[in-house]
Amino acid sequence: MRRRWTRPALVTLLAAVALLGAGATLVPGRAPGPATVVDRSPARELDAFVERTETHLATVPGDWQGWAALGLARIQLGRITYDPANYAAAETALRRSRAVRPDGNASALTGFGALAAARHDFRGALRWARLAVAADPWSADAYGVLTDAYVELGRYPEAGTAVQRMLDLRPDTGSFARASYQFELHGDQRRAWELMTRAREVATSPDEITFALTHLGELALGAGDLDTAAAQFAEGLARVPGQPALLADRARVSAARGDLAAAITDLRAATTTLPTLDHLMTLADTLTAAGQTAAAAETDDLIRVTTRLPGATPATTDIDLILFAADHGDARTAVARGRALLAARPGVPVETAYAWALHAAGDDRAALGHANRGLRLGTRDARAHYYRAEIRLALHDRAGARADLAEALKINPNFSLRYGVRARTVRTELGGPA
Q1: Distance from CA of residue 266 to its chain's centroid?
Q2: How far apart are CA 202 and CA 176, in angstroms?
Q3: 47: enclosing H helix or E strand
Q4: CA 52 to CA 39: how far, in whole Å?
C-alpha cells in the first residue's frame, strides 16, 4: 500500500467546484499533452476561483449553488495548504447555501460530507453523504463522499457498491481513482493500475493529471518498480515543478537506488514548502541512513513539536503519529493514539498501525490479532507484512515470521529505509535466501 496510508477525498471536489460554479470553471480548457510543461499551482487556481465566486456572491447572494461551490473550493484549499481557516470559511459558505435553499440542496450536503471527511470525521461524512444521496440519487459527487466514508470506516463491501454507482453516473478521474484504491486494498495491483491509468486518461485539468501521475507512481513504487515510478514522478514534476508530494516521492526512488544525497535534497525542498508529517519522517529516516544523525535528530524534534500543537482529537489523530511514537520509544502514546484512531476509523491501515503500537508496548498477542485484521483483505503492503513478521518473531513463530519477511521483500525490496536492512538480515537468519 502507498506511503500515504489513507486516501483523502479525491479530485472529484475539483470537478464539483467547476460544475457548481454557475458557469465559472476552475481550470479553463482541456489538459495539455504529455510533452507540455504546465507551471500552475492548484492553490493559485483555487484562490482565483474563490475570489471570482466571492465577487459574484456579493452581487447575487441568493445563488445557493455558488455558495456550495465556494465551500467546496475552500475545502480543497484547506487540503492543499493545510490551513484550517479554509475549513471554517467552507462551513460558513455551505451554511449560507443551505440557508438560501434548505431543502433538496444536495450540493451543500455533499460539501458538508466532504468537510467532515477533510476533518477526519468519517462518521459525520457518512451521515452527510447519505443525506446528499437521498436528496439527489444522481449525484456522483455524493457517492464519492459516501465511498470515502465507507473506506475509512472499514466498510469495504458498501464502499464497493458506492464507487460502482459513482462510476455508473460519471466515469471520471475521481471515480476511477476511487475504484483503483478499492482494488489496491484487496491486493489486485493489476486492476488498481488499470483503473488509475483510466483516471489519468480521462483527466481534464492539470491538477487531475498530476494527481493521477502521483498515484500511478506510488502504485509502482509500492510494488518495487522503481523505473516506472520514476517516470510517473518525472512527468508530474515536468508539469508542476517543485510540487512537494512529487518531490518527496522522487526522493523515495532516489533513496531506494542508493542516491541518498539526491533524496535529501528533494526532501528538504518538499518539507520547506509543505512540512507534512510523512515527508518529515521520510527525511529523518533518509538522514539517518546517510549517517547524518544530528540532522535526523533535529527533524525528529521538529516532528515532536508539531504533534504537541493544539487541535488534535481522536478523530484527527493521524496514522503517522502512531507510527512515529512507536518507532521512537513512546509506546504508551502510540497505543493511546492507535486505540482512539481505531475507534474513529476502523479500516485496515489503522489496524496495522495499532498492531505496531501494541508490539512496541510488548503486547504481541493482541498485536497479532490486529496485524491479521490489517491484512484481511489481501492488501499487498510490504510494511504491513514486515510488522507482522516482527510480531510473530516476538511470539516465537519463526516460520510465520520468515513467511511474512519473504512476502514483504517480494512485494517491495525497498519498502523501508528504517527496516529494510533488518528485514533482509532476519530473513537470512531464519533460513530464507540471502
Answers
A1: 20
A2: 9
A3: helix 42-59
A4: 21
d(C-alpha 141, C-alpha 129), whole Å: 9
Query: Would you call 31 helix, strand, or coil by DSSP?
Result: coil
CA torsion, ordered 56, 61, 63, 64, to nearest 10 deg: 130
Q: How far apart are CA 140 and CA 170, in angstroms?
A: 6
pLDDT at 226: 98
Which grid cell is 176?
476511477
- How large is the C-alpha radius of gyration of the chain? 22
Round to whole Å and give the CA distance between 170 and 177.
12
Distances (CA, A) of 76 to 72, 92, 130, 148, 178: 6, 15, 21, 15, 17
86 vs 27: which has the higher pLDDT: 86
Q: Are 156 and 377 in contact (CB under 8 A)?
A: yes
State the residue for C-alpha cell 507540455: 36
For 342-348, what is the mean pLDDT?
94
Q: How many angstroms separate the CA atoms of 144 and 175, rounded?
A: 7
Structure confidence by residue, pLDDT tens digits, 259-303? 999 999 999 999 998 888 899 999 999 999 999 999 999 999 999
Instruction: Please say if the pLDDT value at position 341 is more than 50.
Output: yes
Q: Does position 316 have pLDDT exceeding 60, yes or no?
A: no
Grid cell of 103 as nine digits? 431543502
The answer to whether the pTM exceeds 0.70 is yes
Output b/e per residue, 154-164; b: 16+ Cβ within 10 A.
bbbebbbebbb
Cell 455558495 sits on residue: 67
Q: Quick: pLDDT tens for 143-179.
A: 999 999 999 999 999 999 999 999 999 999 999 999 9
Average pLDDT over the chain, rounded to an integer: 89
Q: In this predicted model, which residue has the larger pLDDT, 37 or 373?
A: 373
- For the chain, which domains are there? 12-241 (1.25.40.10), 242-309 (1.25.40), 315-429 (1.25.40.10)
Q: Which long-range contacts (CB under 8 A, 24 or more apart) does 333-337 make?
A: 334/360, 334/361, 335/360, 335/361, 335/363
Q: What is the torsion angle, in degrees rounded to the nearest 10, for the CA atoms of residue 267, residue 273, residue 277 and residue 283?
A: 20
Give residues with Cβ within 8 angstroms of 420, minimum separation 6. Answer: 413, 414
Cβ neighbours for 343, distance < 8 A, ≥ 6 positions apart: 314
